[in-house]
Amino acid sequence: MYFETKAGLYLILWWQNLCISHKWIGMVYIIGILAIGFRYWWRRKKLTDSVNRLFDSEEHKSKYVIKTFPGEMSSFCTGCLRPVIVVPESLSSDEAGIVIKHEETHIMLGHIWILLAYDILRVLLWPNILLHICVSFFKRDLEDICDTVTIQRSGIDACDYGEIILECARNLAQTKKKYGCAGEMSFAWDDSYKILKKRLERIVSRKTYNPKMLVIGTATVVALIVASVGIIKANSYKRTNDIGMISGICYTGNVQKNYTDVERSIVVDFDDEYIYVDGKALLEQYPEAKGTDEWFHISSGGYYKIPGIGGGGGWAEINAKEIHDGIIKLDNHTDMDIWDRIIMWL
Predict the structure, then answer these.
(1) Strand 314-319 with 295-300, pairing
(2) Neighbours of 35 (CB within 10 A)
(3) Could you tell me the CA-to-CA distances from 230 to 10, 236, 304 in Å, in that order?
(4) Reported pTM
(5) Closest C-alpha among 165, 209, 214, 213 to residue 187
(6) How many helices (H) and strands (E) does the chain have?
(7) 3-state class of 190 per DSSP?
(8) How far apart are CA 312 and CA 301, in angstroms?
(9) Which distant-in-sequence residues (6+ apart) come within 8 Å of 277 by Cβ?
(10) Least reliable range by pLDDT among 45-54, 221-230, 253-262
(11) How far, in Å, CA of 310 to CA of 324, rounded?
(12) Which residues pair with 249 in a beta bridge?
């Protein structure tokens, strides 16, 4: 669809051609990835360092580490590999129990990993404004899921649960001021009264979900994804595709003039050991090379994953002074490095 239709070629190649003709675009894109990635990393590091300075809770119990904040704040969980739950010491035992179950549900459902993956996507595709706008909506969806699962699995009264959320919202301003960071992995931020009100309304009017239907729905989605992957794979390019008898020629005396030989007019043949070049045809293509001390670099064969992305093949070189009429036999260097093998495997 991308490479064998005019619409596909237009959608893909216009951006590729733009980046080739304006190399600064690619540089800006890479710099943006590094800058935004560092910003997210620094924010997470700052949060982790702040959490590590807190004391472990001796009062509250959980299979995850629980830290206590000396003051009022909104509870949250953080840490993908070693999850930590942070609760304020101002909560009573009953309130803390509900809050901890809420945060445990977030961890159990993999919400911390989901947000990490979303942040990575935002870094790699940082020019996409929609990804940055939708992060708050995304977190609200995670909150709704967590609320429903926590209430149903733990048998918590919806009114008691809502009162704890109101308490967390009341302490929201204190959290940001005292902690000095927005807590990207926290799930307790309600960004407005209207949003908080809607969340509480959903909690009160929530409907219990059927675990069996959830399993059936999940299995159906997985089956559809697997089937889609199979259909796409059956109608896509192979993992590696032989380029065939195509060669590229580069002349150091004029590096802007690259010639692709698809008709075997210059590179008449090649095998694992040698590349066979028609010397007369080569000089006819590059008449400015006669009598110079410049070099020709010739690449032949190889593979592609998709058109324009590939590697492998062999290469040879010859000095312009050594070119003569007839067929010239050049040593074919076919070294395969680790990167070629990784790309072929992907």
Answers:
(1) antiparallel
(2) 11
(3) 27, 10, 21
(4) 0.68
(5) 165
(6) 12, 14
(7) coil
(8) 7
(9) 266, 267, 268, 298, 316, 318, 327, 328, 330
(10) 253-262
(11) 32
(12) 259, 298
What are 45-65's pLDDT values in tens digits? 999 999 999 999 888 888 999
Is the four-CA dihedral 221, 222, 227, 228 of positive or negative sign? positive
| DSSP bridge pairs for 333 | 315
- Give residues with Cβ within 8 angstroms of 184, minimum separation 6: 40, 43, 44, 47, 115, 119
CA angle 154, 155, 160 (to 5 degrees): 100
**Token pair belonging to 314:** 């062999």
Q: Average of pLDDT values for 60-78?
A: 86
pLDDT mean across residues, the chain: 85
- For residue 300, what are the β-bridge partners? 247, 314
Q: Are 344 and 303 in contact (CB under 8 A)?
A: yes
Structure tokens at 120: 């990575």
3-state secondary structure of 318: strand
The residues, any chain, with a CB within 8 Å of residue 254's CB and separated by 6 or more, are 286, 288
Whole-number Cα distances in Å, 6 to 2, 19, 262: 8, 20, 22
Average pLDDT over residues 136-165: 86
The packing angle between helices 6-21 and 23-52, to 10°, is 80
For residues 83 and 77, is the Cβ–Cβ distance under 8 A?
Answer: yes
**H or E element, residue 231:** helix 211-234
Distance CA 310, CA 343 (A): 8
84-88/65-69 β-pairing: parallel
Cβ neighbours for 339, distance < 8 A, ≥ 6 positions apart? 311
Amino acid at site 149? V
Tell me the residue ranges of DSSP E strands in 179-257: 241-242, 247-251
Q: Are 281 and 303 in contact (CB under 8 A)?
A: no
Strand partners, 309: 306
The alpha-helical segments, DSSP class H, found in the chain are: 6-21, 23-52, 93-108, 111-124, 129-133, 135-154, 158-170, 172-179, 193-204, 211-234, 279-285, 338-345
DSSP one-letter string for 253-305: T-TT-EEEESSSSSEEEE-SSEEEEEHHHHHHH-GGGTT---EEEEEE--EEE
C-alpha 298/C-alpha 329 separation (Å) is 12
